[in-house]
Amino acid sequence: MKPSPDNDASIAQLADLFHLLGDPTRLRIVLSCLAGPIPVGEIAGGLQLSSSLVSHHLRLLRAARIVKAERQGKQVFYSTADAHISGVLTDMLDHIAEPTNGIDP
């Protein structure tokens, strides 16, 4: 069932998702998860953040179903939750990379 644009609950839920992704640190973390499962330590190292800060953000992102976690031995690997999340982010990255082609700002 698709959320209706007239449904206040759907609008609020979508706004919450965009609010979470509006934080540059969280967005960088999610973008790190696009390529496939990655452990917290690699995300933290790649973004030059502490593992505890990354873990905090991942908890929020996981609660919102933006990322998912999979335990492999002692490590937890994170990836985007599904193709919808990956698609939206990939499409938006493609969009901002496009030349303006004379479109008025």
UniProtKB/TrEMBL annotation:
Signal peptide: none annotated. GO terms for molecular function: DNA binding; DNA-binding transcription factor activity. It holds the Pfam family HTH_5. NCBIfam families: HTH_metalloreg. This is ArsR family transcriptional regulator. Keywords: DNA-binding, Transcription, Transcription regulation. InterPro entries: ArsR-like_HTH (IPR011991), HTH_ArsR_DNA-bd_dom (IPR001845), Metal_resp_trans_reg (IPR051011), WH-like_DNA-bd_sf (IPR036388), WH_DNA-bd_sf (IPR036390). It comes from Massilia atriviolacea. The keyword Nuclease does not apply. Residues 6-100 form the HTH arsR-type domain. It comes from the Bacteria. CDD domains: HTH_ARSR (cd00090). The keyword Nuclease does not apply.
